[in-house]
Design a protein that fits this description.
Layout (H helix, E strand, L loop, with lengths): L1 H9 L9 E2 L9 H11 L3 E2 L16 H4 L1 H9 L7 H14 L3
Protein name: Transposase
GO molecular function: nucleic acid binding
Organism: Trichonephila clavipes
Amino acid sequence: MITNFFIPELNNHDVQELWFQQDGATCHTARATIDLLKDTFGDRLISRFGPVNWPPRSCDLTPLDYFLWGYVKSLVYADKPQTLDHLEDNIRCVIADIRP
């Protein structure tokens, strides 16, 4: 997956400023995988085995926190829901409309 898709896709983009963050799942931290990621990202690798350690249970490094939750909140509250039912409906609609 990494060598057949991810790395070739990265080569289509300017990744000089890009950071890579991975979780600590065993399948993601095999020696060959870490070596490949270090070669690709250098000191811009956030990983249990990379140059920048990813602290366990660190909510401030969750990718969704950087954009998604603030975006969802802005849409959910855009029409200032006045009831719990209205709020719940907004949440359902906004989440259902999220596309990759």
